[in-house]
Amino acid sequence: MRSGLNKFQRCPGCGNFMIHLAIKNAIKELNIPKHKVMVVTGIGCSGKMSQYLDGYGAESLHGRSVPFATGIKLANPDLTVIAYGGDGDGYGIGLGHLLHAARRDTNITYIVADNENYALTTGQASPTTPIDIPTKSTPAGNQITPFNPIELVKAAGCRNVVDAVDKDIKNLTQAIVSAIQHQGFSHIHVNQACPTWRRW
Ligand SMILES: Cc1ncc(C[n+]2csc(CCOP(=O)(O)OP(=O)(O)O)c2C)c(N)n1
Ligand code: SF4
């Protein structure tokens, strides 16, 4: 964690803790020095990640971590660039950026923590909320069919797409290591626990 920050803004049991550990493990395993890592986040509970990892970090705009990260990689190809955000961020407002990054095959790693809701804004439905699930924005149950982000990103041309689970830190770490090593755009979808809002 960065010096000066001594408190995580996360609920107990939040899956972001485990994904955080996996990112740290992967950077350590690959021996990447702090000054060669850039973590760019969007906005959300997940968006705090850039504040908690050593190295360069930027909390950008909601849904805009991918274009922000793309610009950084183009300007400084020596950096390991990781973009990170939630399902609302990446699969909702930022979906266009994700699909075009997959098509362009820019050499960055994009991790989405999918808790199937907009958690920071207190639990509204997202593009991955299952059918019939009641949320703040769908009190009678979500009636909009969710999409499959893995298939969508593959269809856009991404050659390295992985489906992972936050609590399986070993596999998640290896997925992040492989994604960083992959020469091109990598997408890691992480099924993320959110004990506060995701009660399904
Ligand atoms: C352009 C814009 N629209 C809306 C918001 C309000 N907002 C902040 S976080 C958020 C959703 C967060 O959900 P998600 O991206 O899934 O991340 P999580 O909090 O679940 O990690 C929204 C709608 C914003 N900050 N900027
Ligand atoms: S609301 Fe959910 S995603 Fe946000 S910190 Fe709490 S458990 Fe984590």
Structure explained in plain terms:
This protein is of the alpha/beta class and 200 residues long. The protein has a single domain, classed as Thiamin diphosphate (ThDP)-binding fold, Pyr/PP domains (Rossmann fold). The protein contains seven helices and eight strands; from the N terminus they run H-E-H-E-H-E-H-H-E-E-E-H-E-H-E. The strands form two sheets. A six-stranded parallel sheet has the order 2-1-3-4-8-7, sandwiched between helices. A two-stranded antiparallel sheet has the order 5-6. The chain is globular and about 50 Å long. 46% of the residues are buried. Bound molecules: thiamine diphosphate and iron/sulfur cluster. The site of iron/sulfur cluster has 11 residues, from loops.
Mean pLDDT score: 96
Total tally of structural domains: 1
The CATH architecture can be given as 3-Layer(aba) Sandwich
Order of helices and strands: HEHEHEHHEEEHEHE
Radius of gyration: 16 Å
The distinct ligands, each listed once, are: thiamine diphosphate, iron/sulfur cluster
Q: What level of helicity do the residues show?
A: 25-40%
Tell me the distance between the termini.
31 Å
Strand percent estimate: 15-25%
* Strand neighbour order, sheet with most strands: 2-1-3-4-8-7
